[in-house]
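Q: Can someone sanity-check these two? First one:
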Amino acid sequence: MSAVETVLIAMLAGALRVSTPFLFVSLGECLTERAGRINLGNEGVLVLGAMVAYATSYLTGSPWLGVLAAAGAGAALGGLHGVLCALTRVNDVAMGIAILLAGDGIAFFFGKPFVQPSAPGLPGLPLGGWSTVPQVQSALTVSPLFPLGVAVAFGMAWMFRATRLGLRLRIVGDSADAARALGLPINRTRLLATAAGSALAGIGGAFLSLVYPGSWNESLSSGQGLMAVALVVFARWSPVGCLGASLLFGAAGALGPSLQTVGVTSYYYLFYAAPFVLTLLVLVATVRPGRAVRGMPGELSIAR
């Protein structure tokens, strides 16, 4: 197998593996923002979800209970964000930063006893059985959370497009005046959307601790929750677009390790910054001063 093929297969594996937390956090942020609220606190939710999932898996022996616990912890923290943002003169962005710090602090405080112990992880799904190449088989061994995230992306897109619930969410996110005229409960809708979105972000955190890298420590996230906000802008608030953008970011995150597999060791650490560089390029390419981005919900703070 040539060096180019080795790198491409490694990037494919990275796209399927590294993209999963990006996918869940971006879908959660997409749901929240389509209801007219920004939640920068999903970075803290990601870290808290990772800790809760790992601790629950270690204490119960069931990684799936860990995933459910991570979703519950994310929903609780997102619900707190939703309740506080419904108060008068509370800014979404400032409160999101406070929630981020709170999630990090809670995870670091209660997660210290679980840094060393080994918890059961989620098993992989071998989708490469059709190939006789070991590298392809390894690349196509994916976490069960990845197909779950794909299903959530298409299910959410269908909900926005074809259901009454999706229509109400879009109305609340696009125009609070229109929502009031129709008698829609704006604060309750945004609260539920924020809680559900943070539950998805919590599942993304469970992937980090139970699948890849498969452990719990205080530097687990590396800013993926914050990068997901830029990813949602890049995807134009489309759930299916979030799936494609997550795969792109996942492949970028795998660039450094992929080059190392073929012996490229000089300045390899620069390639590890590829997701962060891509985030900056996405923001520069898609955001223009004084003009709302196409597809942006009208009630977002940054659109006012």
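And here is the second, same format, sequence then tokens:
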Amino acid sequence: MPCSPILVSACLLGTACRYDGKSVPCPPLLEQLGNLRLIPVCPEQLGGLPTPRIPCERQGERVISKTGTDTTAQYHRGAQQALQLAVLFGCKAALLKERSPSCGCGQIYDGSFSKSLISGDGVTAELLKQHGIAVFGESQLCQLLAQLK
């Protein structure tokens, strides 16, 4: 019996959708492609942000670009779209890009653009968790796979 679908950050699958116009393929995930049903998403693109785009970080409840532009509305719109896809496809878990202001789970950048990390979640990770979807970062792929068994 196939496992339930997993929402996954598209950049981890090799889609060039990150803020810098690049991807960050996750080799262990790519090795599992035949065994998993993946629903790729890029919440930033779903929220209407371009690729490439100016880096953004969470500052409390806001998401601010490095140039000071408030992108909170786009991040919330993208999170809602990702949640809608997760519900539509019956995803019980998500594998998201760590440290991202959208997808980060457990640790995100602190909002100072100094590469300092703090405890917290990105906007999408936070929303998915609020709706009972288990969220994992790419370094937690083994834990996700163990949960699926």
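A (reply): Looked at the second one. The radius of gyration is 14 Å. The mean pLDDT is 95.
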